[in-house]
Amino acid sequence: MGSASPGLSGVPPSRLLLPPDTVLWTGLEKVAVGAGATGPERWDWSPSPPATPEQGLSTVYLSYFDMLYSEDSSWVAKGPGASTREEPPDEPEQCPVIDSQAPGGSLDLAPGGLTLEEHSLEQVQSMVVGEVLKDIETACKLLNITADPVDWSPGNVQKWLLWTEHQYRLPSVGKAFQELGGKELCAMSEEQFRQRSPLGGDVLHAHLDIWKSASTSEESWTDSEVDSSCSGQPIHLWQFLKELLLKPHSYGRFIRWLNKEKGIFKIEDSAQVARLWGIRKNRPAMNYDKLSRSIRQYYKKGIIRKPDISQRLVYQFVHPI
DNA sequence: GACTAGGAATCTA
DNA sequence: TAGATTCCTAGTC
Length: 321
Known about the structure:
Blueprint: H1 6-9, H2 57-70, H3 80-84, H4 116-143, H5 154-168, H6 182-187, H7 190-196, H8 201-217, H9 237-245, H10 248-251, E1 255-259, E2 264-267, H11 270-280, H12 288-301, E3 304-305, E4 314-317
Antiparallel strand pairs: 1-2, 2-4, 3-4
Helix pairs in contact: 2-4, 7-8
The structure holds a DNA duplex.
């Protein structure tokens, strides 16, 4: 799941030639964390709203390619996060760094008549759009909400707000949007967002816009990998933990495998894992004390246990597969 | 202080 | 009703 649809990734490279003052809005907040580090790979790019709300996801994200393409023809991710990256990521596929410096700088033709640079551009474009959709998909799973904001209940809206505030370090605005359902939220203008939340309203509106764009242009992406959290079934804690573990690029700094084959994992940031679980279950008072109690309930059921060599914050799935 | 372990009552889908 | 949450005491690191 999460792969970009042809409709999103198949945008002609000419679309990349945006006005020089086009703002960058990636919707991603990814802070780079190197190999061996406990954190997830995240590129912390300063969010700016889309140039216009009508811009689709692809157009919005293509602004970033334009920036990459225009600067020194150097295919290195730029932005605040990129400049602070100290080590290469441990998952190369997550890092769209492509060397387009063909020998002699010639514009060789790739299959299909595209220049190599255009070909690379499409690859990068496809990867970034895929990453955007993955991020939304992950949030959708963890929050147990649909991809389409229009369908959100007031409770879903609050979950999404909590999540977005957490992910993008925005001030808490939940109360300002109380009682609003997804339909009402989607109908609100950026100005109305600002009125309700002067500090982060514009950012929230931009994020919502990305969700709207993603759900309208990629309607089937959430169906490609149906799991417990998207099927309407209440998710179990052990499932939730596995979901986090399966997204090391997003949650590796919170929880990670020590030995995937044996199902041994370590909770690196107990407070954050508990917080995510609380958001997922709509339990704002959740903490690690309670979460760990739930984990211990699995001891009797043979789902999770402590490893043979017990370590703090280290647990083991009894059935790793 | 943070984590571990488990009992018990309560809540919730 | 099962699973999760909440609160608690006691012990370990």
